[in-house]
Amino acid sequence: MSKEIVRTERTKIRRIPKRGSFERETIYKILDEAFVCHVGFTVDDQPFVIPTSYARIGDRLIIHGSSASRMMRTLGWEKPICVTVTLIDGLVLARSAFHHSMNYRSVVIFGKAKLISDEQEKIAALEALTEHIVPNRWPEIRPPNELELKATTVLSLPIEEASAKIRTGSPVDAEEDYDLEVWAGVIPLKVKAESSIADEKLKKEISIPAYISGYKRA
Amino acid sequence: MSKEIVRTERTKIRRIPKRGSFERETIYKILDEAFVCHVGFTVDDQPFVIPTSYARIGDRLIIHGSSASRMMRTLGWEKPICVTVTLIDGLVLARSAFHHSMNYRSVVIFGKAKLISDEQEKIAALEALTEHIVPNRWPEIRPPNELELKATTVLSLPIEEASAKIRTGSPVDAEEDYDLEVWAGVIPLKVKAESSIADEKLKKEISIPAYISGYKRA
Q1: Which terminal residue of chain A has fewer beta carbons within 10 Å of its beta carbon, N or C?
Q2: ipTM score of the complex?
Q3: Prediction pTM value
């Protein structure tokens, strides 16, 4: 069974604590719907924030990148990092400027990433990354060869010190503003897949698989 | 006229430099389309990455938050920060696992944010934040009062040391993989607004303005 999420001063939800959660189920649902995270790390007192894809394997977050990249070289040193995942669900239009908001679901994870060096574990992590973003893709494609594996750094971050923050629903206005003649409500936002575009070098006889033509997030 | 973007060791595009840009026009186009950034800052060697909305006024990025929040209290100290904006345009499906990628447009800005304390400048910044996310909204809503202004910290980050990184188009496979019997191409992704949901407390006679019913990103 999963270890309990560690609650620390760093993951404490200071602003509007009722929006916070430390439940693995809540955190994992967000992590499993999104596929891009923003990784924060510090080099010589300068923070860097880099977007990258990720996958979850059990209680670990997997990220990967070129072995030559600044981020991968830095994170391999087991420095403290912060990984943030954000889903924007809607724009919340209140009657006053002050109470405008967004509906969102976000996760913040603190920790140190470990290098995955075992070859079989590394391949499994790359499979998880591909399958997280496009389920059913891995069995069809050419797996990484020795050189490609060497050129790819894969890191594993334990999901131990983490929290989720969620806002849903209508605007909440100041009592006296409900009388104003202003439209208020929510504009929902969704990430949608459009019709896929075949590579112009695609061989004519290859038809589009159902997992691509029917691709959906969430 | 805008000062030239400063190119530094930090904004150097190390991986695939042809995807990089230091043009203000390219950087601003991305900043003007997106509306959520991830702000990175460091407290006691621990990086934090927090999602928040933003606006651009000329050559400055504006962010705001509760005066009580950890981020706003920290950034007010003029510490080095990193602000990253990411738009995901599509999933790039190659014939090999290794060449899978994403189409994206991202901007990274390094610098120190300054507190906006002048009241008129602060209100103008809040107007820019609202109008950036929902154009035409500001003239309709109740503007912030004294207490609300006090409870809100607004920061301005000069866009001086910044870069954009962009990937577009088809997968690029290894020459020998083009013969494989694998579908390859791009699944485009778009953020779309769905039908707005009126607040249940909305007065019956208030109809939905065109800038909300016709809301679109980009």
Answers
A1: N
A2: 0.94
A3: 0.95
